[in-house]
UniProtKB/TrEMBL annotation, chain A:
InterPro entries: AAA+_ATPase (IPR003593), ABC_transporter-like_ATP-bd (IPR003439), ABC_transporter-like_CS (IPR017871), MacB-like_ATP-bd (IPR017911), P-loop_NTPase (IPR027417). Keywords: ATP-binding, Cell inner membrane, Cell membrane, Membrane, Nucleotide-binding, Transport. It comes from Celeribacter baekdonensis B30. Residues 6-233 form the ABC transporter domain. GO terms for cellular component: membrane protein complex. SMART domains: AAA. PANTHER family: ALPHA-D-RIBOSE 1-METHYLPHOSPHONATE 5-TRIPHOSPHATE SYNTHASE SUBUNIT PHNL, LIPOPROTEIN-RELEASING SYSTEM ATP-BINDING PROTEIN LOLD. The keyword Magnesium does not apply. One of its GO terms (molecular function) is ATP hydrolysis activity. The keyword Hydrolase does not apply. Belongs to the ABC transporter superfamily. Macrolide exporter (TC 3.A.1.122) family. This is Putative ABC transporter, ATP binding protein.
UniProtKB/TrEMBL annotation, chain B:
GO terms for cellular component: plasma membrane protein complex. It comes from Celeribacter baekdonensis B30. Keywords: Cell membrane, Membrane, Transmembrane, Transmembrane helix. Residues 273-386, 661-773 form the ABC3 transporter permease C-terminal domain. The keyword Phosphoprotein does not apply. Belongs to the ABC-4 integral membrane protein family. LolC/E subfamily. The chain crosses the membrane at residues 15-37, 165-186, 273-292, 313-337, 357-378, 434-454, 655-675, 702-732, 752-771. This is ABC3 transporter permease C-terminal domain-containing protein. One of its GO terms (biological process) is lipoprotein localization to outer membrane. InterPro entries: ABC3_permease_C, Lipoprotein-release_system. The keyword Heme does not apply. It is found in: Cell membrane.
Length: 235, 787
């Protein structure tokens, strides 16, 4: 029996912007299981990022509840939510969001310094194949390398959950592949539950499960009987 | 080092020039505070130590003549610890190589031993010996100015006869830290000195053997000064006492008090401007930084940094700027304070200097400095704290520009699009425009206040030497003489016109407020000296009552029409209740005026004079001076040309130094503000400006957008700064006015214009300096940047 690490109960999210209300999420029931890789697929504006942000405790749902193991995240205070992110969640974003004034190693150290049981920044960078780029500043790294630093930064705290919002969105297919390989490798060796947003359908084949979203709802979920390695995905 | 701190250091290196500019503005404020309070404290301590070690007296009185037995009676007054009766008088001197007469105050020393109070401090040689009647010690400033050394001789006119005196010692006295001759406005060390003579030699000159005409005494710690003064006045009244007074009326002490008060004003009026401007600058720079760091702040929050840590991160950066500014300010303040204390020590003739800027003053200025920048940072830091992580990481929404009145106006005037960009930018970021406006106007205000000092001095000089005192010379008579003396003076060689003055010491009393001043009565139809009303028109004192300087009336708490008590401190020693007839303008000195006939009618005397103003033929000055020297009835001779030169020399040195310092500080503010504003603008609009370049605009056309926005704000700031400057001038005038000097509030167009020009120049310089960076903006990469 698979145990769920994150679970949502009919969550909705409404943005009130001026005259119109935008219903970004219209009732989502979803579980993320220990150790699995999930790909979120859907058109732009379908609510993927909103869902991911709520799962990671960056945002709160308008209605519904989110559970981390047995803990109700929606009832936590802001500072408790900060603690939750600090201890359990790693984020990777489309635009890397590295601190430009810090080197690769220092960007990772930013997280290891406040984590409970971190790995060393060197080890984290080694895992994403950047052991030799440690003292480079973001501006001296290619896009793929920057994204791998971001992954190293996300996994260095040994998170329970890794949330990636279009990590390959800004990359060409070859560099995208190296980034995905890094993610899959981390999932395999550390068992980190990973949710990955993309609007590139080909990538879905690397996941255990694929969640399709349309218009703020989950339209269907499919399980991959057979996963392929990122290097075999072409796009 | 922690990664967050590393980011801090590197970010600071990136904005070092801007941080330095802010730190310098802050440093200016801290420097002025440190300098003024350090000098003030050092002078206070030096003076206290000098007074203590040399037994500066607590109460002073002069009288006509009293037998020495009276001293015992005075010593018995409750609270009196030491009493000294001296013989003090003024004598004319005949110095080699000096045609004009000089004068000296002759002070007696006891027949044997040293003085009891106000001990002279021997710098060279020794005190005169009682056996040698012609031995004297002289004051150091006078000795320096006339190149007299122990062993040298000079001649004095004592009791109508020329006597040769031998200098045995050069001394300083706590009683004369600031020495000023009778009727003079400024120290004149060449023409006025102090002579210490044994009583056995000096008393016979005034026929005061076994008697005294000057009293000083010291008090115990718990003595009641007012009660002692009353008792002394009662005892001395039969002996022609002219009113005892405490240290608060002792001329040398009062003058130093005034100077200390001015240093206090310096420490409080200007520094706040600098502190507030640096707070605004920090706000401007940090707001920009937080806006730039938006995505990073979101990330910090996403990965679990607490808001407190993030807020602290930006506060640390601010504190860094604050600490730098405070350290620079302390450094320069300490050094300049030392220089300034030294300058004062020389000017005031302290024997030594204790430079003791108090640690507390430093601590307080430091705390104020850091607090100012932290306060400035709070708004920006609050914005960083408020950012929600999810929002922070999505790119910022482009600023909303709305069509408004400015656009319609622009269309109406058919302004160019680049000009419209400027107008919209100012309207879109009113906060930043306001900071620039405020900062630059602060700079204008500082300059206005600095140059205002010159305006005030000019006005005082014009009033003093052109409007009120138009005489060439003034004779001080050795006693009261019949009116005929004026006619005699008119017959002296080279004298074109002579006008007599009768001046007596009085005490003005209104409730608890009392002032010792001189009451003057001028000859009818006097032309050489004039009295000006508050509008600057010459008036004659009315027969209705006493005429007072505006400031004196204010301090006594009386207005025209009010009744005032006048106590005559010379015979007939009466007390009158007199209405205040009117108030007049008098910046320097405090004299009350009375109509002559009314005065002598009240005194039941025929008119007398004790001072004579002269208009003279400059070609016959030598003859006049020679004649004056051999006339025993004349105790002093003042040439107004000398007074004026002395006045200018004394003021210009210290004033010019101060004004140069403040003008530099004022410029620094403008440079700091405009440089920061332009840098931020350039960074924020790099994309926009690069786009203009892509579209084919020339560099100069792009620069136009940058330069004109800053200059436009500068121009708007000038009138605001003028207004603020006028307000600060008002505060300054109040802070610098003392019992003896009233600073008039006049700000000339020259000052306004100069302040504006300097600010415009500095602003243009700063923005052009920033414009050079346009060369370095790579068009293509600027366009690629997502921000
Ligand atoms: N902060 C916000 N304010 C208002 N509307 C928002 C905000 N964030 C997202 N939305 C809206 O919510 C919907 C879902 O957005 P998002 O979750 O970003 O979609 P996706 O990541 O699938 O492209 C969109 O219509 C978007 O415009
Ligand atoms: Mg998205």
């Amino acid at each position: 029996m698979k145990t769920s690490i994150l679970r949502t109960e009919s969550i909705t999210k409404v943005y009130h912007t001026g005259a119109v209300d935008v219903h970004a999420l219209r009732g989502i029931d979803l579980s993320l299981f220990e150790g699995e890789v999930v790909v979120l697929l859907g058109a732009s504006g379908s609510g993927k990022s909103t869902l991911l942000n709520i799962l990671g405790g960056l945002d709160r749902p308008s209605e519904g509840r989110v559970f981390f193991r047995d803990e109700d995240l929606t009832r936590l205070s802001d500072s408790a939510l900060t603690e939750f992110r600090r201890d359990h969640v790693g984020f990777v974003f489309q635009f890397y969001n590295l601190v430009p004034s810090l080197t690769a190693r220092e960007n990772v150290a930013l997280v290891t310094e406040i984590a409970k049981i971190p790995m060393s920044p060197e080890e984290a960078l080694d895992r994403v194949g950047l052991a030799d780029r440690m003292s480079h500043f973001p501006a001296e790294l290619s896009g793929g390398e920057q994204q791998r630093v971001a992954i190293a930064r996300a996994i260095a705290k040994r998170p329970d959950i890794l949330l990636c919002d279009e990590p390959t969105g800004a990359l060409d297919s070859k560099t995208g592949t190296t980034v995905l390989e890094a993610l899959i490798e981390v999932n395999r060796s550390l068992g980190t539950a990973t949710a990955l947003i993309t609007h590139n359908a080909a990538i879905r084949r690397i996941a255990h499960r694929v969640i399709y979203m349309t218009d703020g709802r989950i339209s269907h979920i499919e399980e991959n009987a057979e996963r392929v390695a990122p290097s075999e995905v072409s796009w | 080092m922690r990664a967050l701190d590393l980011k801090l250091l590197r970010d600071m290196r990136h904005i070092w020039a801007q941080s330095l500019a802010i730190a310098l503005v802050l440093a200016c404020g801290i420097m002025v505070m440190t300098l003024a309070s350090g000098t003030q404290r050092s002078l206070t301590e030096t003076r206290a130590a000098y007074y203590e070690r040399h037994r500066f007296a607590d109460v002073f009185a002069s009288l006509t003549r009293a037998p020495k037995q009276v001293l015992d009676e005075i010593a018995r007054i409750d609270g009196v610890t030491r009493v000294e009766g001296r013989v003090v008088f003024t004598a004319l001197l005949d110095l080699e190589n000096m045609r004009e007469p000089a004068s000296a105050r002759v002070i007696s020393l006891p027949a044997s031993g040293g003085a009891i109070l106000n001990l002279p401090l021997i710098r060279h040689g020794r005190l005169p010996e009682a056996l040698h009647q012609n031995e004297v010690a002289i004051s150091e400033p006078f000795a320096d100015a006339n190149r007299l050394r122990p062993g040298d001789t000079f001649r004095a006119i004592l009791n109508g006869r020329k006597r040769e005196l031998v200098v045995t010692g050069i001394v300083l006295s706590p009683e004369y830290i600031y020495t000023i001759g009778a009727g003079a406005l400024m120290p004149d060390d060449r023409h006025f000195g102090l002579i210490w003579m044994r009583e056995t030699a000096s008393a016979p000159v005034k026929e005061l053997e076994g008697a005294f005409n000057d009293l000083t005494l010291s008090l115990s710690r718990d003595a009641n000064e007012a009660a002692v003064i009353d008792a002394v006045d009662r005892i001395l009244a039969p002996y022609g006492g002219t009113g005892a007074y405490g240290r608060d009326r002792q001329p040398s002490n009062v003058f130093i008090d005034g100077e200390l008060k001015q240093l206090g004003a310096l420490a409080t009026v200007q520094p706040p401007i600098f502190l507030v401007v640096s707070a605004f600058l920090v706000n401007m720079v940090l707001s920009r930084l937080v806006a730039l760091d938006r995505a990073q702040i979101g990330l910090f929050k996403a990965v679990g940094y607490t808001t407190r840590t993030i807020a602290l991160h930006y506060l640390k950066m601010t504190a860094g700027i604050g600490i730098l500014g405070v350290l620079i300010g302390w450094g320069f303040g300490w050094w300049l304070g030392h220089e300034m204390t030294e300058m004062y020590t020389d000017f005031f003739r302290f024997p030594w200097l204790l430079y003791r800027p108090g640690p507390w003053q430093l601590v307080i200025s430091g705390i104020l400095g850091i607090a100012a920048v932290i306060l400035g940072a709070l708004r920006a830091v609050r914005a960083s704290v408020r950012l929600a992580p999810a929002v922070a990481m999505s790119p910022p929404v482009p600023p909303v520009f709305q069509r408004g009145w400015a656009d319609s106006l622009g269309e109406m005037l058919s302004l160019r699009q680049t000009t419209m960009m400027i107008v919209r930018s100012i309207i879109r970021w009113p906060g930043r425009a306001a900071v620039t406006l405020f900062g630059v106007s602060g700079s204008v205000a500082v300059l206005v206040v600095s140059f205002f000092t010159f305006d005030a001095i000019d006005l005082i000089m014009a009033e003093l030497f052109e409007h009120t005192n138009r005489q060439d010379a003034t004779l001080t008579l050795s006693g009261n003489l019949n009116d005929r003396a004026v006619i005699d003076a008119g017959n002296l060689p080279g004298v074109l016109r002579a006008e007599g003055i009768y001046a007596i010491p009085i005490r003005l009393v209104n409730g608890t407020q009392t002032r010792l001043v001189t009451l003057q009565a001028r000859a009818p139809g006097a032309m050489l000296t004039q009295i000006l009303d508050t509008e600057g028109r010459a008036i004659t004192p009315s027969t209705a009552g006493v005429v007072l300087p505006e400031e004196l009336a204010r301090r006594l708490g009386v207005a025209p029409g009010d009744s005032l008590r006048i106590e005559l401190l010379s015979p007939p020693r009466e007390t009158w209740q007199v209405p205040v007839a009117s108030v007049i303008r008098q910046s320097l000195g405090q004299d009350a005026y009375f109509d002559r006939d009314t005065l002598f009618h009240r005194l039941r005397q025929t008119p007398q004079v004790n001072m004579i103003h002269l208009a003279i033929d400059p070609n016959r000055l030598t003859d006049l001076q020679a004649k004056v020297q051999e006339t025993p009835a004349i105790a002093g001779f003042t040439l107004w040309e000398d007074v004026r030169n002395e006045f200018v020399a004394t003021l210009s040195e210290s004033l010019i130094t101060m004004s140069v310092i403040f003008a530099t500080l004022g410029m620094l503010i403008t440079v700091g503000v405009v440089y920061n504003a332009a840098r931020i603008q350039l960074a924020e609009r790099a994309h926009e400006l690069a786009s203009l370049r892509v579209l084919g605009f020339r560099r100069s056309e792009v620069g136009y957008v940058l330069v004109v926005e800053q200059m436009l704000l500068t121009v708007f700031a000038i009138p605001v700064g003028w207004l603020a400057g006028y307000g600060f001038a008002l505060l300054m005038a109040q802070g610098f006015s003392t019992d003896v000097v009233t600073i008039p509030v006049v700000v000339t167009q020259r000052t306004f214009a100069l302040a504006a020009l300097i600010v415009l120049g500095s602003a243009l310089g700063a923005v052009l300096f920033v414009m050079r960076r346009l060369d370095r903006v790579d068009i293509v990469s600027a366009l690629k940047q997502k921000e």
